[in-house]
Amino acid sequence: LSKVTVPSLLEKKARRQPIVSLTAYDYASARLLDEAGLDIVLVGDSLAMVMQGYENTLAITMDEMLVYTRGVRRAVRHALVVADMPFGSYQADEQTGVANAIRFVKEAGAEAVKLEGGRERAALVRRLTAAEIPVMGHIGLTPQSVHRMGGYKVQGKTTAAMEELRTDALALEDAGCFSIVLEGVPRELARLVTEELHIPTIGIGAGPDCDGQILVLHDMMTMTFSEPAKFVRRYADVADVMRTALADYKRDVEARTFPSDEESYHLPRETRKSLEV
Ligand code: KIV
Ligand code: NA
Question: 20 to 30 Å CA-CA from 229: which of 140, 152, 165, 207?
Answer without folding.
Answer: 165
